[in-house]
Amino acid sequence: MKILYISYNGILEPLFQSQGLPYIMAARKKGYDFSILTFETAENTGKCNPLFLKMRDKLSEAGIAWRYLRFHRRPGFFAKAYDLIAGIVTSLIISAEAKPDAIQARGLFSALAALPASFITRKPLIFDTRSKLSEAYAISGKWKKGGVVSRSMGFLEDRCVCSAKAVVCETTDHRTEIEEFLSRNKMKKHLEVIPCCVDLERFKGAADTGKKGPGFVISYLGSLSGWYCLKETVSFFEEMNKVLPGSRMIFLTKDDPGVIVKYIKESALPGNAVEIFGVSPDSVPRHLASSSAGIVFKYPDQRLSSFPIKIGEYLASGIPVVINRGMGDAEDFILDNGVGVAVDGFDEGAFSKGIAALRSLLGEEDIRGRCLLAAQKLSVETGARKYINIYESIAKGARR
Q: Residues 230, 253: contact at Cβ < 8 Å?
């Protein structure tokens, strides 16, 4: 079976490296053929970029065809419109050349680029919607909630769901929402819930070789976008530093750290209590394994369509996770597996109880083993099997 895989994320970006490529490579080992179309920044595709050359060779050796288009940031709307038109045209060209049996699109933009090719060639579309873009951007403040842009994106997401043969989402809450939408429209689709999984090979041995420094260290990994409660994260550590003097916090991110620096300056934390590192994916396991715990706070009962990637990466490093109540599937998973604590709010009292619970959890002898066991439930192999279920279902339908 041949699949055209379209991603608006660049192939060297952390998101594609963790949530795109590992699934493709796992399915390729099972005999599935892929053609990949990505959108790349000028920095990523520089001919002297060793990572670019290494990735090109890696895909070629695996028998995977890769074509990329330039990702444009400016001027705003016109850049996106240009990228979309280029994506549509190139998807049609690749479909004519490679003759895929299905087109898989990761995210809304990719699905919009894939729709014409899917319609013209009559090949099924797999809409890998993951979390809801319209919801995420409204929460982060990029779009006004209920505004024209947010409602328009929500409408387009619904149209892509209607046009798809199969839909992938991250959480059961999102699946329920899609099922209700399909029921109202008297439609049925193949739905799969695939949370953000972790490539355990990247973290192999990290929990055993990671050197724990003196004192307590809590780490935050990944995006500094507006849908995470970063101010509350710093406030939690501020309270922890009072309870455990000398404790440290580490931020591992490729984003501009300005927002974190601002919150640190507004706090009463000692100047050397927080460190910020711009790290490569290869160094993440080492940093996390040297920590005592990982942390992620999200707005309670919002973005329930999302299961943060960082949770699986914390667990694969053998460290428990601090979250807040109201995180849906992520909260259920962490508490059901006994691999973290959930604070009841963002006030001083809730933080104090959460810190006490975390200290108690870290005192349990089998906590590292439980974290590693839970990480296996979020392995790329587990996610890949679900993608393969979709491919097999589509192949069976085509043979009828």
A: no
Helix (H) or strand (E) holding 342: strand 340-343
The amino acid at residue 345 is G
CA atoms 198, 203, 208, 211: torsion sign: negative
pTM: 0.91
Q: Which domain holds residue 316?
A: 200-376
The tens digit of pLDDT for each residue in 71-94 reads 998 888 899 999 999 999 999 999
Q: How far is CA 352 from CA 168, 233, 295, in A?
A: 38, 13, 15
What pLDDT, in 10s, does the model give residues 12-33? 888 898 899 999 999 999 999 9
Integer Cα distance of 309 and 277 in angstroms: 18
- 300-337: b (≥16 Cβ within 10 Å) or e: bebbbbbbbbbbbbbbbbbbbbbbbebbbbbbebbeeb
Task: Let me know whether 264 and 371 are in one domain.
Answer: yes
Which tens digit of pLDDT belongs to each residue from 332-367?
999 999 999 999 999 999 999 999 999 999 999 999
171 and 239 part of one domain:
no
